[in-house]
Structures are given as C-alpha cells and as structure tokens.
Amino acid sequence: MGAQGGGVPMQARQTPMATMADPVVANAGPGRRRLVVVGNGMAGARAIEEVLSRGGDEMFDITVFGAEPYGNYNRILLSNVLSGAHDAADIFINPLAWYEENAITLHAGVRASGIDRAARTVTGENGVVAPYDVLLIATGSRSFIPPLQGLNGADGRMRPGVFGFRTLDDCDAIVAAAATSSKAVVIGGGLLGLEAARGLMNHGCEVHVVHLGKHLMEAQLDRTGGAILRTAMEAMGVRIHLETSTSAILGEDRVTGLAFKDGATLDCDMVVVSAGIRANVEIGRECGLSVERAILVDDAMRSVDDPAVYVVGECAQHRGRVYGLVAPLWEQARVFADHVTGVDPESAYTGSKLATKLKVMGVELASMGLTEPADERDEVVQFTEPKRGTYKKLIVRDGRLVGGILMGDISKAAYLMQAFDRDSPLPHERLSLLFDMGAPAQAVTLDEMAPSAQVCNCNGVSKATLGACVEAGERDPKAVMAATRAGMGCGSCKGLVGEVVAWFAARVDAAAPGPEEEGTVSLTPRMVDGLIEIEELMRIGAVAKKYNVARVRLSDGRRIDFAGLSAEDGALLRAELEQA
Fold it and tell me: β-strand 112-116 against 239-241: which pairing, if any?
C-alpha cells in the first residue's frame, strides 16, 4: 500500500491536494536526528503519524519520498472512486498541507532511486540527496502484470486499452476509457478485481471476469463461498470465466480482445489487469538488504542487515510472512515508532492474525484465519442457504476458532472476530456461534471488546479511538466517522461503529454529575476508556481518609460518591481531588 511503487503514469491531477513543482520543505531543527521515509503510501504515512504522536516532531527532521505526486490517500477506497461512490478528494488521508503543517519535507512525485547505506543517504530520481540517521522503507507493492503476448506496444508501454489498478492515476485512466468502452474484461477474480468489475458496471460496460482459479476470492473464501458469490455477481450481470488462463492481448493499435490457452478468444475493447501484487523491494535489494518475497525484518521491524534501516508494510517480510491488510500494517507502524522514539524499546511485532470484514459487489462478508480444515483435530460448523446468499462456516480446533467465513448474514461477526483474535474458548453449543441461541448479547460483546480492538479494519480505527471522540463531545455517528475515518472504507463496519458510539455515549451520560445528596460529594475520577491508574485510585483513597469520609459508593456510570461530609469538608475534598 505504499506510494513508492508503480502505476500508469498520467498527467498530474490538478486539485488542491495535487502535485507541486517544488517539494513541501520544512525548516530544519537544531539537534534533531534525520528520519527519511521512502514511500508515501498508507504504511509510511501512518508510521510518521505514530512517530509524531510520540513527540517525534521534537526528535526528528522528517523527509519523505513519494513516487505519486500527491499526499497520502486511502488506497482501499480506489474501488469507490472507480465506481463513482467517492470523489478522489474524499479519500485523501494526509493532503499536501498536512506535511507542511507538521514540518515534514515531502518530495511528492519523486521516486527514490538509490540508498547509500555507507554514507546514509537517499537519492531521488530528480537528483535530490537526503541524508538520514534513521531510514524507513515503506515502498509497498505494485500490480503484478503477467507477461502476456501482445501486452506491450512498440514503445514498451502497455498497449492502449490495457490498465493496471493500483493508483489514483490508474483510476483516472480506467474511468476515461470506460466512458467510450462497451465491453471490458477484468483479469483476476480476487477482491480488487471484483471491485474493478463493480466500478466498470457502474460506467455502463458489459463486464467479464477472467480468473485462473477454481473459485473467486481464494484468499478469503472456500469453494462453496466462492460459488455463492459467483451466483450473486452473475445475477448482477457480470460474466464469470473460471479456470481460464489468458495467453495474449489481441489487437494492433489498441486492444480488441483476449486469447486463452485453450484456444478460445473473447472480444473486448478494454482490459483491467488485477492478477495480484508484488512487493516493491528493488531499492532494498540494490543497497544490499536481505530480500526474499520482501525485505527481511526482525520483531522491531528493523532490517536484519542494518540497525539504521526499518521496513514496514507490504514490502516487509516478518517471520516468513508478508501482510497486505491494513491492521497488520498499523501494528508494524506502532512498533517502529516505539523503537525510533525510544518510547518502548522492548516493543515487538510478533505477527498478526488475519481477519477482515468486506463488502464485495454489495455482498457483506467476514473472513478470518483458515478457509479449510488443516488438522485432523479441526471441527467444521457450517450452514448454507444459497438461494438467500447466506453462508456460514467455522473451523474450530481444541475449542478455539481458527477460521471462519460469514456471507450475507454477518450479525455474529463482531463476537466471532473477537473470539478469533483473543483465542477465546468457544461455547460447547456450536450452533450458538452461528445464530442467536445463547452466544453473548451484543452489549456484553461491546463491554468485553478490548480498547485496542479494531472496529474499522479499512482505516485502522479502534474502539478506544471512537470512545475518545465521543468523550470529546461528538455523539452523532456520522460526526464520529468523519472525525476518525471509521466506516469510510468499504462501509461494512458502519453498523458496528454506530453501536460503539451509542455505547460510549450512554457511558458518558451515565457518568455526568447528578444532583448530590446533602453531605455527599460526587466526582468522576480521571479515566481513559474506563481504566484508572492505580496511583490515582490510591490518591482518591488517601484524600477520602484524610477527610474522614463515612462511606464511599460507586454510582451508575463512573462517578464516586463520598458521603457523610460537612459542607466545609466536602468543599475541601472536592478542591483537592479536582486539582491536577
């Protein structure tokens, strides 16, 4: 999800957040270390935000190289831009002004061309050289374009009418072509390919999806789930071609069709390639870092070769795994920031359990862990109702959830995803895992949900972040979504966001001071998401003892009532407890 990687080059977008001829340059600070970030995508920009939240603006002069000529935008929402559900301006997370406001030097539209680890410098394609004390590589990934016959023209570029789907410029090019296209083919039946198909349908094209696999979305679904999704898509008018291998792009000046390995052909005037991604690791390999599928890192997200170089996002390989979902990238960014700022030198990234909620072609979907049993101990709990588009499958091992698929009805997703993440023991009545027959009620689930639990996977918004927004005064779910970006991705979490906001609002209302009984003082102690520091609790007890409080009562919400006080002692107790 980094912005250092590829994309179809287009003329710069002329909007308020668009490219600038010169870099956004910040004034250097005395005595600060130099942090250089290669890649201005979601992982790199989030890592910078994490550094700033730990006081990094006082520790570092920050320089960023971004291959795209914009600020950082939400790549997950590109499909919504393609479909017309969002304007491009709506998906920017960090527009150009943000970098200037935070004293960050941004080389927008400048790809980093080389790293000199001995001299500790990064060189941009325009010749600019940035020295570093700490380097973060967050180059993300790019579309994998298969080596198809006829793919490229004489100039080496992709033939007119053929597009990747990874960047804003890709979106612009696809939308422009779709306006005059009558028949479009998407190569690839993964999540991004299906989202591209949805967008093309909204532009009036006849859409075909050509997929090499036996069913759609193999990473999130099993064969049964894939078949149900196929039925739903075909009902919307999308033609699906499974187990079909494309061999060539047909046409002279521009695309006129596809040829397949079985000898069949398919006429079309537009092709979108969404056949997977490849990590942008070239800059790491060229400077001598260890690279396999991505750049190798340790639990501190530090390169295994150089203590001054860190790597986060889709270009990082940790314990043999490369992650593409947002939540793991956010976790990696936090660990990186903990280390470089010194806030927590023991912070460690130990890997992520993958779970996500999505909306694909209007079909709600939750997926976590395994899609098929992998051990003789695995127990499968399954319910299928194809005509209604409902499919539920859980894989249980030793009483714990190790995998699950929910389609159509995802009302149990919050409970199940929490059980999966926490590795919690499951009820013996397995049917209650799929239907409301004894599983914890939603209110209990929200009470037990950890403050750090992700409510919005697309934008990495936690329960605690929503709570802080509510406690700061926002009560309307739409206002909270606008302030935190929760629910602004695929949209499948909007219902849960609303429930969490209502839950926090009820707690805040319950904690509001009410009328005090005579001789009683009611106060709300300092808390964060319902948690109180031990030192604060001891301070409250000491003050209560000092003024000979007759009894202490915990009232509804988070108030503490101190009873049996004279008016004078009550005023003194209140003043002492309310002081900072």
Answer: unpaired
Between 569 and 178, the more confident residue is 178
Question: Do 141 and 277 touch, CB atoms closer than 8 A?
Answer: yes
Predicted local confidence at residue 560, as pLDDT: 82
* Residue written as token pair 């990082």: 316
Alpha helices (runs of H) in 213-354, residue ranges in sequence order: 223-235, 282-286, 326-341
Q: Does domain 33-142+278-341 have CATH number 3.30.720.200?
A: no
Structure tokens at 335: 């660990």
The SS3 call for residue 171 is helix
How many angstroms separate the CA atoms of 318 and 299, rounded?
7
pLDDT score of 473: 85
Single-letter residue type at 156:
G
Q: Give the closest residue to 189 by CA, choosing from 403, 361, 390.
A: 361
Quick check: 11 pLDDT over 80? no
Q: From CA 462, how far away is CA 456, in angstroms rounded?
A: 7
pLDDT 10s digits, 270-292: 999 999 999 999 999 999 999 99
For the chain, the C-alpha Rg in angstroms (whole number) is: 27
Three-state DSSP state, 267: strand
Q: What are 574's two structure tokens?
A: 């209140």
Instruction: For residues 407 and 385, give the distance between their C-alpha atoms in angstroms, rounded to a whole number.
Output: 10
The HSE-up count of residue 558 (CA atoms within 13 Å, CB side) is 19
Which of 54, 42, 46 has the alpha carbon at shortest distance from 338?
Answer: 54
How close are the terminal C-alpha atoms of the chain, in Å?
A: 43
Choice between 357 and 320, residue whose per-residue pLDDT is larger: 320
Express each pLDDT in 384-402 by its tens digit: 999 999 999 999 999 999 9
For 119, the 3-state DSSP assignment is coil
- Phi then psi dihedrals of residue 265, to 5 deg: -135, 165
Q: Which two tokens stand for residue 417?
A: 């995803």
pLDDT at 12: 33
Look up the CATH number of domain 162-275: 3.50.50.60
Residues 166/142, Cβ–Cβ less than 8 Å: yes
Greater model confidence, 25 or 501: 501
C-beta separation of 557 from 511 below 8 A: yes
What's the CATH class of domain 359-509?
Answer: alpha beta
pLDDT: which is higher, 5 or 222: 222
Write down the domain spans for the chain. 33-142+278-341, 162-275, 359-509, 520-578
Are 104 and 63 spatial neighbours (Cβ–Cβ below 8 Å)? Answer: yes
Convert the pLDDT of each residue in 538-564 to its tens digit.
Answer: 888 889 898 888 788 775 456 788 888
Task: Give the pairing of strands 60-66 and 33-38.
Answer: parallel
